[in-house]
Structures are given as structure tokens and as C-alpha cells.
């Protein structure tokens, strides 16, 4: 989805913007944060927790969630992904973690953009 600057979404962080650039470069249609899925409801049925994946790729019928959280902080996202799969088994969703994102960015010539998400020495792996 190649979009004009005026229609460009406001991304939550630079990793989302970089991911969108990769998708644009390869001509992959995408929508940023198009849907929210209720995960937890209170006794009255009101939504108290919802999950909004970062991207939807319509041609692949796939939602993508990006995370650059350190592994010990990723428990939160992993829990939400588990709930998504339990509550919405028909929804296809993939979580791309720090290392996968970094490796993808380096592979596609975005090494400079990958620097902010490199993590600690222990988290880094030479591709």
C-alpha cells in the first residue's frame, strides 16, 4: 500500500515505520492497526482488555505484531498472542520479535535503522 505523505499513519514507533517501508518496497499491501480484538471482558460484558495488531496484510490474510521488548518483558505480548489464538482461532497472526526484525532489516539493507533495536550483546546474533 504505497500511500501519500498526507495519508501516512502515525506509527507507534520507528520499527513500525521501517516495517511499512519494507512492505512498500516489495509491493505488499498493508493496513496499519485496522482492528482491535477484545481479550478480556468484565462481569457486565464490557471490554477491559483488547489487542490491536500492528499490521494487517490483506493479500495474505495475516496480522503482524512487532515487538522489540527484551525477552523477559515479552511475556506480556506472548500472553496476549496466546489469548488471541484461543479466542480467535480463525485469525492468522504472527509475532515478529526483536531478533527477527533486526535480521530482516539487515537482510534488506536497513542496517542503520536496525541499530536502535539491536539489544544487548547477549541478545545479538551475527547473521
Task: Give the gist of this structure.
This protein is α+β, with helices and mostly antiparallel strands and 127 residues long. The protein has four helices and six strands.
Task: Please name the defining characteristics of this protein.
127 residues, alpha+beta, Endonuclease, Chain A, four-stranded mixed β-sheet, two-stranded antiparallel sheet, 4 helices, 19% strand
Summarize the structure in words.
There is one protein chain. A four-stranded mixed sheet has the order 1-4-5-6. A two-stranded antiparallel ribbon has the order 2-3. It has one domain: Endonuclease, Chain A (3-Layer(aba) Sandwich), CATH 3.40.960. It has helices spanning 14-25, 75-87, 98-107, 111-114, and strands spanning 31-32, 37-41, 47-51, 55-57, 62-66, 93-96. 31% of the residues lie in helices and 19% in strands. It is an alpha+beta fold and 127 residues long. Residues 120-127 have low confidence and may be disordered. The longest helix is centred in the middle third of the chain and has 13 residues, at 75-87. It is built from four helices and six strands. The protein is globular.
Amino acid at each position: 500500500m504505497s500511500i501519500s505523505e498526507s495519508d501516512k499513519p502515525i506509527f507507534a514507533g520507528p520499527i513500525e515505520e521501517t516495517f511499512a517501508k519494507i512492505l512498500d518496497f516489495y509491493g505488499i499491501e498493508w493496513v496499519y492497526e485496522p482492528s482491535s480484538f477484545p481479550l478480556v471482558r468484565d462481569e457486565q460484558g464490557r471490554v477491559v482488555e483488547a489487542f490491536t495488531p500492528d499490521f494487517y496484510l490483506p493479500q495474505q490474510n495475516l496480522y503482524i505484531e512487532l515487538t522489540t521488548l527484551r525477552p523477559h518483558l515479552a511475556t506480556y505480548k506472548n500472553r496476549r498472542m496466546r489469548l488471541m489464538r484461543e479466542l480467535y482461532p480463525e485469525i492468522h497472526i504472527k509475532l515478529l520479535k526483536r531478533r527477527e526484525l533486526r535480521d530482516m532489516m539487515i537482510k534488506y539493507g536497513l542496517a542503520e535503522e536496525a541499530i536502535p533495536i539491536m539489544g544487548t550483546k547477549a541478545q545479538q546474533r551475527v547473521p
